[in-house]
Amino acid sequence: MRQMKIDIEDEVLPNDMSGTQLNDENYEGGAGIVLKKGPWTSTEDDILVDYVKKHGEGNWNAVQKHTGLLRCGKSCRLRWANHLRPNLKKGAFAAEEERLTAELHAKMGNKWARMAAHLPGRTDNEIKNYWNTRIKRRQRAGLPLYPPEVSLQALQESQHSQSTGGLNGGDKMHPDFLQKNSYEIHDAIFDSLKDNQGILPYVHELSDISVYGNKLKGLDSSQYCSFVPPTSPKRKRLKESTIPFIDSCAMKKKDLYPFDQIQDNNSDKIAQSFGMQAPLDPGLSSHSSMCYSHSLSNGNSSTSKPYEAMKLELPSLQYPELDLGSWGSSPPPSLLESVDDFLQSPTAISTLESDCSSPQNSGLLDALLYQAKTMSSSKNHCSDKSSNSSTATPGDRADSSILNVYETEWEDYADPVSPFGATSILNECPALRANANSLNGQLPVQTLTGNLPKLESVDQVWTPNNENLTLSLLNITRPDFLLASDWYDLGSGHCKNQTITTDAATAFLGDDLATDLKHMTAGISKTMFENPFQPL
DNA sequence: AACGCACCCAACCGCGGCTTT
DNA sequence: TAAAGCCGCGGTTGGGTGCGT
């Protein structure tokens, strides 16, 4: 009540009034002054500006002491930085600022302060607010999070990093290169993944696997740097990477349904992370998150109902700006749904459940370990899901979902306006176009109607003679890309980073489990990449 | 006009890192 | 070396506003 009274009175003390001179009503207990919260008044602003003019920025806690301003130092700093600081831009973001923001976010992730350094006159808070609203807006509109040019740039840089990564073996890279080179897209991806740990527990701390692997093996820095966060050389905010959603044992109240909070922003980002730049269906990523919410919160497999519910929540009038991502009339299933299906498999469920009670909730490696352990004890699941999709029955959920992925992706490629549509990419990137000649004229545009592409075309595409670039073009747009592509050499058919995973895993898990892990990841990769259009 | 809803954004909160004592 | 204080960052919240019904 006293706080409210202060707010209402909106009294600001004279500049020279020290805290000890305040009326007793402004004290809380013996020593603590009741500091004001809420909106700043112009008088308070004047006092703060005056103080900063005299004393400069910093030492914010002294503001209250010197001016009697009933604001904590934090609040003063925030007010100054976000509103009172000179040369601040106000108003809507210009087109160039929007573009730059998207580009920076693609590179940095949610590093608002760093982004603000590249946007003169804009504050981190402003950028953050802008981005969050932008995410929601674009998600509602069914637009990709990043503009096509940013997506393309990310793709090209990723391609470049993949193609050159192996050539830098052992070379020490300049820190600037670690910060600014093309590998940053990986960081963005992994930032997003970390952001989405609640959605995909299995990708949790993916970067750490690489880091561990490199530390253990002394691998070349190119591999290492591809996963090094560009912002902080050391681990920051451990909680972000050590509290996956599944850690329900340590759940806070609001974590009971973590996806409710993150579905808007992060599900789209996870799709972005997987290369799904263009949306499949407005709100579909949210649907995916909802699926996770259902499947992971109660352990039941229920994908259809949330999907329907979400569709109902998003009437067609919410698709106003389909200038970039016009999609087929029948929305294909989400990639995440496929993953969801996989996670909802008995194996995955048991994994999740066991993970919940496990003291090891440290990330993908653990998840894979549990997965491997479970799979090793139930080979049927393993073979069904990872290496034997050709024998799957139509009723097999996992395989049908994988098939859905293929359909989805071909629609993606066939979509002339999709940022990752084959046409747009090939038109904009001559190198890719040259490598994708075998694709020309064979794009299964038929899939826009929801049908499968012709298998003979697919066979041609996926012959062993195809270049990695073409395959990479495809695999980067795959949901499993992050889970598998970096471990699987598409040209040779081997796990190119097998030594990383195997050795790192061996070091951590022991030979048996590491072998299971290797087989599992290889199996998934092999199936995905060698039989991408395997008929059911 | 009233109501509900969604959006926007300023401000707060909690945490971790750095510096000082 | 440890503790305390300060600062900055990122996530979240809540109030104001506009729009549609």
UniProtKB/TrEMBL annotation:
Residues 32-88, 89-139 form the HTH myb-type domain. Residues 35-84, 85-135 form the Myb-like domain. PROSITE patterns: HTH_MYB, MYB_LIKE. It holds the Pfam family Myb_DNA-binding. InterPro entries: Homeodomain-like_sf, Myb_dom, SANT/Myb. GO terms for biological process: anatomical structure morphogenesis; pollen sperm cell differentiation; positive regulation of DNA-templated transcription; regulation of growth. Residues 378-390 have a biased composition (Low complexity). One of its GO terms (molecular function) is DNA binding. It is found in: Nucleus. Residues 378-398 are annotated as: Disordered. Keywords: Activator, DNA-binding, Nucleus, Repeat, Transcription, Transcription regulation. One of its GO terms (cellular component) is nucleus. This is GAMYB protein. The lineage of its organism: Eukaryota, Viridiplantae, Streptophyta, Embryophyta, Tracheophyta. The gene is GAMYB1.
